[in-house]
Amino acid sequence: MAEPAPFLYRQLADMLAGQIRQGLLAPGERLPSVRALCEAHAVSLSTAVQTYLSLEQEGWVEARPRAGYFVRVRPRGAECEPAMSRPQMVAREIAVAHLALDVVKEARRPGVVNLGAAWADPRLLPLKALAREHAELARHKPELLGVYEISAGYPELRRQVARHLQRAGCRCAPDEIIITNGCMEALALSLRAVAKSGDTIAIESPTFYGVLQAIEAAGMKALELPTHPRDGVDLDSLEQALKRRRLAACLLIPSFNNPLGSCIPLAHRERLARLLASADVPLIEDDVFGDISFQWPRLPAVKSFDRAGNVLLCSSFSKTLGPGCRLGYVAAGRYADRVEHGKLLANIATAGLPQAALANYLARGTYDRVAHRASRAYYRRSEQLRHWLLECMPAGTRVTQPQGGVVLWVELPSHVDGVALHDAALQQQLSITPGVIFSPHADYRHHLRISYGLVDDAEMQGAVRKLGVLAHDLASRRSS
Ligand SMILES: Cc1ncc(COP(=O)(O)O)c(C=O)c1O
């Protein structure tokens, strides 16, 4: 599905909107005059005017007569967002893994419109190019199938990943990179490299159920931290937690938390890296959505501020190139030897041929174009989805405004049960994910995660209308 190149004014508007989201342009700050914008970006007067008109229409900026354009004090849509989460902040064992498994299985039923899975749209993945690389190697290098690959991974892929990570601002040596079976294995190996059974891991609330399952499987406990729907984890709460109790590690999704879509702002990233390094608590940074960013180029990863080898950056190519390759990695800093050993014990090594194929693909240098095109498509879908949800769902519904990734988080009015809505939707061949599986003890009863990864605009509108009817029906049954 070829996406047309965006107009110049659109590119400029997206760039400025990104700077506003990240706080690089502060609320109330005056923007450059139209003329200054023309000069700074070598664009025509009409492009500059169109840029500001679009930003105004979208609610990012406001025009003040005879004074120019200013960043709006309350960002657009902030009044429709959920508040910061307020978990209990006690270390707890996890008991949702079985529930998560059921939900994921149901969502795969054939014929279901899938607003449930946080998957990339195959139409936006370079599948033919990847298939060509695999076929080429299968024909000319079948010997790759005749040996075990080394545990740390195919050397050329480790080198390509080290280069790849430069776009996230990270300078990693290939030696610290271990290739894994997707990001999920990267997370599991990292947890076991830095902590043991019974230890406590600090996480965002809500967080990806896969993170909860990995912590549960390792016999560890989770301490949930308050998390803001836009800015991610609350660093003051983390600082307090570090003073009060022994944390073995912190496992966060700074770039587009699943399910919130939140993004830790640039200034907080440095503080986060410093805070954890000085407490000697490793950070497992899940960056699987980092390159599906609505601000382009993407923000530097927290790891880029790490000077102590304290951050284990976990990611994969599942969201940008192809989840079926099952290729991910950990840039493990000073824990590289332990992660490599864990990999050897877990399954010896990741298959060599797909690693070699991916290395060849990355060497061609088309990754940025593919990831940027997909990010733009997801941005448009996220805006559409949010609009329709606010229009179709019962009054009082709140929706996050993702800054990247493929999911958003919905807070329903307190008389609408998210699990009941999930069940009713599934009966109508529509899958959504109930909020209960995003916390250790099924806390988010009135929440949903909705994905815009797999459905295009046309499918989405019909699906949200249907969901709205079901939600109104549940709401009226509760109040009658
Ligand atoms: C936040 C997060 N981390 C990790 C993963 C797992 O990624 P992979 O498919 O590469 O194992 C997912 C999958 O959806 C995810 O949403």
Low-confidence stretches: none
Gap from first CA to last CA: 47 Å
Spatial arrangement of strands, main beta sheet: 4-12-11-10-9-5-6
Shape: globular
Identify the bound ligands.
Answer: pyridoxal-5'-phosphate
Total strands: 17
Mean pLDDT: 92
What this model shows, in words?
- This protein is an alpha/beta fold and 480 residues long.
- 41% of the residues lie in helices and 13% in strands.
- It contains 15 helices and 17 strands.
- The strands form five sheets. It has a seven-stranded mixed beta sheet, with helices on both faces. A four-stranded antiparallel beta sheet has the order 13-14-17-16.
- Helix 2 (34-41) crosses helix 3 and helix 5 crosses helix 12.
- The longest helix is centred in the C-terminal third of the chain and has 26 residues, at 367-392.
- The radius of gyration is 22 Å and the shape is globular.
- It starts with 7 loop residues before the first helix and ends with a helix.
- Bound molecules: pyridoxal-5'-phosphate (PLP).
- Residues 118, 182-184, 208, 210, 253, 258, 286, 288, 316, 318, 323, 328 line the site of pyridoxal-5'-phosphate (PLP).
Explain the layout of strands and helices.
Elements (H helix, E strand, L loop, with lengths): L7 H14 L12 H8 L3 H13 L3 E4 L3 E4 L25 H11 L5 E2 L12 H14 L14 H10 L12 E4 L1 H13 L5 E5 L4 H9 L3 E5 L1 E2 L3 E2 L1 H10 L4 E4 L13 H13 L4 E4 L24 E6 L11 E4 L4 H12 L4 H12 L3 H26 L5 E2 L7 E5 L6 H10 L2 E2 L1 E2 L12 E5 L5 H23 L1
Parallel strand pairs: 3-15, 5-6, 5-9, 9-10, 10-11
Antiparallel strand pairs: 1-2, 4-12, 7-8, 11-12, 13-14, 14-17, 16-17
The protein binds pyridoxal-5'-phosphate (PLP).
The site of pyridoxal-5'-phosphate has 14 residues, from helix 7.
